[in-house]
Fold these 2 entries.
Entry 1:
Amino acid sequence: MTEVRIADNLPDWVKDHVQRYLASDGADGHYWDASLGGGEGMIATLLLTTTGRKSGKPLILPLIYGRAGEGYCVIASKGGAPAHPAWFLNLQANPEVQVQVGADKFRARARVAEGAEREALWQQMVDIYAPYTKYQQATDRRIPVVVLDPL
């Protein structure tokens, strides 16, 4: 893969998190202090690399994750903003992504969970990071639950 970039508009603490994760091959950065975002304790994060729908360039960011069968799930919350996050729009345009969980790196296909699967994964993720409930209350859009199925 070509050189991956961290989006310029991310807060410095997020950029630092990604840099530590990459530099340590996941040893430092896999767990994130959720109190920084209103949660509790140390929570596992993965690195998701999408392809920019406009730029065509790979973009990377850390996301809280849960398990979804053989894969993982993430929440496209954008803190309850009215619009979907850019990374979600990117994977809608190109669902093939790169994922790093700790030191494990793999290709995956992203899809939006629906129905009973979505409800079960949403509850799992709220149990991991309770602020997702407030994020959903803050927006009229239905926050997507994204499953990352390994290829």
Note: The beta strands are 5-6, 31-33, 42-51, 58-64, 66-68, 71-75, 96-101, 104-112, 145-150.
Entry 2:
Amino acid sequence: MHFLETFADTYDIFLKGMLLTFQLTVVSVLIAIVIGLFFAFLKISKVKPLELLADLYIFVVRGTPLIVQIFIFYFGLTALHISGFWSVVLGLAFHNGAYIAEIFRGAIQSIDRGQMEAGRSLGMSNGLTMRRIILPQAFRRALPPLGNQFIIALKDSSLASFIGMFELFSVATTLGSNNFDYMTYLLIVAVYYLILVLVFSTIVNIIEKRMSASD
């Protein structure tokens, strides 16, 4: 009963935190997709300096903790008078972009090379063939791991609480410290995260089914 009463009494403040978590996740992932696609093209470009640049970026992201990356972006960008929200968004995008780059690279390279040759035989340039033939197929194959990365980004957004962003996890820890009842509020915030994961997973599944139907 205590859990349900507390859940009902705090839903308004948790909804505000959930909205911020949603915004951080969606905006950062959209930017990360652009970053990932850019570095995926560098990886498959067969131009050695560009490949090395992409490898360096992915190595740095994988080799350093996300919390360190967020702090670097936060303290670096706020010194340039960029808001904390955008500092966190860019930090999350920088991190997720590396993993999305590998997802796109694998998806693009999984498409049969004959597809590119077929496009060229129809008079298309490499760029046009990539845009009209290769990328649509690659995106279909990349969608499941992209959905997983989206959910990972959602949970990673909880690290924004360490720099004062009042997202879901921060709401739970703040209320827990005020009421000396951490366990109840942590269980409540777990429910909200599960709701968000369920919503995102459902959206990804719907998109997958529609793409499968179009095939």
Note: The chain has a mean pLDDT of 89.
